[in-house]
Amino acid sequence: MTPITALIADDEEAPREQLRAALGRLWPELKLVAASTNGAEAWDDCLAFEPAIAFLDIRMPGLTGLEVARRLSALAAPPLIVFVTAYDDHALAAFDAGAVDYVLKPIDDERLAQALAKLRARLAQPTPDTTALQRLLAGLVQARPVARPIQASIGREVQLIPPEDVIYFEADARYTRVVHSGGEALIRTPLRELLTQLDPDQFWQIHRSVLVNSRCLARAIRVDEGTMVVTLRGRDEKLPVSRQFQALFKGQ
Amino acid sequence: MSSHLRRWLGLEWSQWLYPGPRRVFTPDEMAKAGSQPWPAGIDEYAYVNLIIVLAVYTHESRFGPYLWPVGLGLCWGALAMARSLWRSPTSKRLNVACWGVGLVLGTGAVVLVKQGWRDDVQASLPVMLAVMTAVLSGWWVLTIYRVDQIESRLRELADQEAALRLSTRLAAAQIQPHFLFNTLASLQHWVDTGDQRAAPLLRDFTAYLRATLPMFERELQPLADEIEMVRRYLAIMQARLGARLSFGIDVPADVEAQVPPGLVLTLVENAIAHGIEPQLGGGRIDIAARRDGGRLTLTVRDDGPGLAPGWADGVGLANTRRRLAQACPTGTLTLADAAPGCIATLTL
After folding, report:
1. Which one of A62, A118, B107, B111 is CB 3.0 to 4.6 Å from A40, fit for a cystine?
2. A5-140 is classed in which CATH architecture?
3. Which domain holds residue B250?
4. Which residue of B has its CA nearest to A61?
């Protein structure tokens, strides 16, 4: 049997390690695939490792735990989410009744054991419907401030690209490629950091390494059971849609 | 019988001898609670009544053409006096006015009698006395009412002030639960694992709690105490955030001042929450103070993302401004973009 996988995310070292130690004591068979140190990393690690369970701190830089959860809940097969927080934020009452659990820091073994029992029971069931959770999270996540222009250095000059002019971003080995209405540029900011500064309703992530402006999308084409591509208005290239994000294109 | 006598003697006879309120307000109290405008309805009410009475009695009057101008003139005078009592409701002013009216009317009557109007004066005496009594009683009631009004307004303001002071002090003393439990989480883990970092963190945390918990008992505290509290706070945050936080405190020992407790701490908490924690790579906080002349300037600077467009004071900052205004009305607090980051400047 393949082991059950989990991810933990907390921006502070000690609580992260405390959770790791507690999980080791209470559920030794659980396989930790990542310990992320901020929200942007947590989201990227979730895409890379596809854990079955994600333990998310709520207050994290980059993306908050709520924002990561919101993005996760839109995926084809989202992980089960347990929030880990220092204080009983008012929002948590809603989660307590909903599809996910929460534990308070400092972590109490007894309370964590209860949450783990719930998780085991939930893992045995078929994938739950997350639309209610999605709606709840959408109300809790605060709007991002206005996005600043993308700054690309070309030789001695810095080119400023307004985000609405960008057609798509693609992660390269060490850079992020910015394809915009006026050409192409390379920037150093990794894609996973960039996506925290952009409006998720305007820029859709369709692959771990591709972020596309939704206004430039023309059509989504299913190639075979697991493969999908999108085409863009007035452009020839086709961009891949990874399995996790195919739920974005389901027709209305 | 004797009980009747006692009750009669026990009446407030001083009102008969020297009518009017005993409470005297200071100019400050008047400025604070006595600025209500004169109710203009009283003027209209008095004139309308007077005009009706004059219209009814015009043909019976012995004064002929003098009745209207004299009647309206007296009414205007009585209302002018009433307005003056409204502005300054004192027994002294009331008594001067009453005695003045008595004197003028008495003298006028004597003069008229001497001039050969004896019969007319005698005939109108009851009416004149009735009018005079009505006017004087009106002034008296107005003055008593006005003093009562100002007194209750002052009481109301004092109650509000006390409630505000209490609430701001309690709010100042409130420790952020997130801070508390996150710190305990680190401490718990380091104690469990025998980590070297546990002991200094516990020491800083204890000192921080000792400094912040009695905060609401004091209105002001020396700047050095406040800075020590801030230092402990930053030491705790540095233990928790590790390399993500660095800080510098440059407050010379000879810069002395009294500050409302928690004022600088709130600014530093804001710098952590908005300048350091949202940054993936962390950042730096610098606190500096200097004195030029009589003014103390203290700055808290971070190198975070700066002020968000359209930002507004949160609860903590609004509270801080109120406490600053209470403790030091000439003090100022401004926030500005510092490129990079945000700088909060406090002057006292």
Report:
1. A62
2. 3-Layer(aba) Sandwich (3.40)
3. 174-347
4. B278
Name the pTM for this structure: 0.67
From the first residue on, what is the mean pLDDT of each consecutive set of 10 residues in chain A (252 residues)? Answer: 89 92 94 93 93 91 86 84 80 54 88 91 75 70 71 87 91 89 89 86 90 91 88 90 87 72
Angstroms from A230 CA to nearest CA on chain B: 32
In degrees rounded to 5, what are phi and psi of residue B147? -65, -40
Contact flag A61-B186 (C-beta cutoff 8 Å): no
Q: d(Cα B160, Cα B156) in Å, to the nearest integer? A: 6
Which residues in B lie closer than 8 A to residue A86 (C-beta atoms)? 177-178, 180-182, 185
- Write out the two tokens for B73: 């003139």
Strands A176-180 and A166-171: antiparallel
ipTM of the modeled complex: 0.76
Pull the structure tokens for residue B278: 């949202």
Distance, CA of B256 to CA of B254 (rounded, Å): 6
- The pLDDT, as a whole number, for residue A98 is 47
Q: What is the structure's pLDDT at A144?
A: 64
**Is B1 part of a structural domain of the chain?**
no
Residue B180 pLDDT > 70: yes
Q: Could you give the count of Cα atoms lying within 13 Å of A138 in the half-sphere of its Cβ? A: 11
Q: Which of B254, B170, B260 is nearest to B222 (CA)?
A: B260
Q: Measured between CA atoms, how close is B84 to chain A, in angstroms?
A: 57
Q: Do B185 and A86 touch (CB under 8 A)?
A: yes
Would you call A65 an interface residue with chain B, using a CB distance cutoff of 8 Å? no
Q: How far apart are CA A87 and CA B287, in angstroms?
A: 29
Domain boundary among B127, B146, B170: B170
A22 → chain B, closest CA residue? B189
